[in-house]
Structure formats: structure tokens, C-alpha cells
Write a structure and sequence with these properties.
Chain lengths: 102, 184
């Protein structure tokens, strides 16, 4: 039996589950994926929305420009992206690409 | 399906004002889903907006549209808009229904129905509602074309999106940029 628990945070990092939608989801997970989120490891001393976007850009450089125009929602509320808001482990974090409802 | 079905408040004449919000894959029934929910003997007007899927975009034939929602947040954002309508306009009842999933051509993707004693309030409220819903509510549509060209995720030109330039922050904390042109 493996003793490795992949869900345990690495030292000094916090795992943040990030919900994805529409084009961002498709670009990261593929068109036919049933998943709707990615896990991002953020440094425990800088577990913030700015850091989250930076990590996503590093991991997925092909959508760097798209991430620039996305909103970020924490616990179902848009946050002002110019503020670097602290994210807590159980927060529901979502990347919101430009919307097209109606 | 996610719904809100509440009495929002009483207006100054003591009439209960109802709010109904639905985000679901169900086809929209104009009468049962919207009209019946807002009709009231105190109303002199029922104003509605029905958004339907168009069969073309820039000369290409559209086969169907697929809508995706961040449903709990979409309902919450629609509720915020309705709350603003109730406090701003002299209206009676509101029903907002947004269909998600596959919406075939010619069918409705959104219905807004608002009743009021006098027409001006509900007409203005409906216009504000659809404009704001298109800009801020986390719902997305993807267009599929009959010629087999790649399907495209759309974005509303008035959409709530982040930009580092020319942006203004409204009091909801939304970052809006109005580009002033219409892609539709």
C-alpha cells in the first residue's frame, strides 16, 4: 500500500480547487472532459487571487491572454481583480471568462 | 434546476411582490413560466423580454446553441439585479427564467416578465434587467455552425470582464468596460 496521500498539501503550499467554465475549461481540460476544476498549489505565505492567476498562467501559457480578461469569483461573489485577495482553503474559487448569457 | 421562488417584500400599498428565478435545462413556457407568475389584478402592464436563438451569425448558419452556467452564482447575480429593480422601480412581480444546455434554433433562452401598475416602470425595468443580465451573470453560450466550422464560445460585448485599461468599477465591485459597439 502506498503511504502517499496525493491530497495532502505539499510543505508550505495550499491546494486550491479552482472551478473552470466555458472557454477556459475547454482550453485547460479539453472539449469533452467531464471535469470542471483544477487543483492549483499556492504558497502558504501567498495564497492569493493574484498568485492564483500567476500560477494558472505559468501552467497554461496558451491561455495567458484569456486569463487577463477573466473575472475571479470567490464564494459566489466577483472580486475586484486589482485587489490581491487572500484565499482560504475552503473558499470556492472560480475563473469567470467574459460572459455571454441571455 | 435551480430556482428562487419568494415573496420579496410588500410594496407601499401592502401588496406582496413575488420574485421567481429559474436556471434550468427545461424549455421556457412563456405563459406558465412567466406570464402566470407575474399577472396581478393590481397590474396595468406586464412587460416581457423573450430572447430566442438566431439561425445565423455573420453569414454563417447556426445549428444550435449550448449554454453553460455557474448556476449557484448565476441565480445569485440575477437575484441581485432583481433586488435592484424592486428598490428602483414601482413594479409588482418579477419572473426571470434562463435555459441552459442545448437550445435549438428559434427557441427561447431567456424570459423576463415584470408586472407593474403603470407601463413605464415595467418597460424600463425589463430593459435594465436584460442589459445587466447579459453583462454580469455567469452564463456562457457556444455557437455550433451547420458548415462544420469550429464552434465558438461567444462573449457579450457588454460583458463583465477584467481589463487593466479604460475600466471603471461600479459599486457592486464589478469591472465593466463598455466598448460601445455591437457584435450581434
Amino acid at each position: 500500500m502506498s503511504t502517499t496521500d496525493t491530497t495532502t498539501d505539499k510543505p508550505n503550499t495550499i491546494e486550491i480547487k479552482c472551478l473552470l467554465f466555458a472557454k477556459v475549461k475547454e482550453m485547460i481540460l479539453g472539449e469533452h472532459s467531464k471535469d470542471d476544476s483544477v487543483i492549483v498549489n499556492l504558497p502558504a505565505n501567498k495564497c492569493t487571487t493574484h498568485q492564483l492567476i500567476s500560477e494558472l498562467k505559468l501552467k497554461y501559457p496558451n491561455i495567458s491572454n484569456l486569463l487577463d480578461v477573466c473575472m475571479v469569483a470567490v464564494n459566489l461573489e466577483y472580486i475586484d481583480r486589482s485587489n490581491d485577495l487572500e484565499i482560504k482553503k475552503r473558499d470556492e474559487v472560480a475563473i469567470i471568462p467574459p460572459v455571454s448569457g441571455g | 434546476m435551480s430556482t428562487v421562488d419568494i415573496i420579496f417584500d410588500k410594496n407601499k400599498d401592502g401588496i406582496d411582490r413575488g420574485l421567481y428565478i429559474e436556471v434550468s435545462e427545461e424549455p421556457i413556457d412563456f405563459k406558465v413560466g412567466g406570464y402566470n407568475r407575474v399577472e396581478d389584478d393590481n397590474a396595468g402592464a406586464i412587460s416581457t423580454f423573450l430572447g430566442t436563438t438566431r439561425n445565423n451569425f455573420k453569414g454563417k448558419n447556426v445549428e444550435k446553441l449550448e449554454y453553460e452556467a455557474y448556476t449557484p452564482m448565476a441565480v445569485k447575480e440575477i437575484a441581485k439585479i432583481c433586488s435592484h429593480l424592486f428598490t428602483t422601480y414601482n413594479i409588482l412581480h418579477i419572473a426571470v427564467l434562463h435555459r441552459i444546455g442545448t437550445v435549438p434554433i428559434g427557441e427561447a433562452s431567456i424570459l423576463i416578465a415584470i408586472s407593474s401598475a403603470h407601463r413605464h416602470d415595467s418597460l424600463t425595468a425589463v430593459q435594465y434587467a436584460i442589459d445587466t443580465i447579459k453583462a454580469t451573470v455567469p452564463i456562457w453560450k457556444k455557437e455550433y455552425y451547420t458548415d462544420g466550422t469550429m464552434s465558438v464560445w461567444k462573449d457579450n460585448c457588454e460583458s463583465c470582464h477584467y481589463t487593466t485599461t479604460k475600466s471603471t468599477l461600479n459599486n457592486d465591485g464589478h469591472d465593466h468596460q463598455h466598448s460601445g459597439h455591437n457584435k450581434h
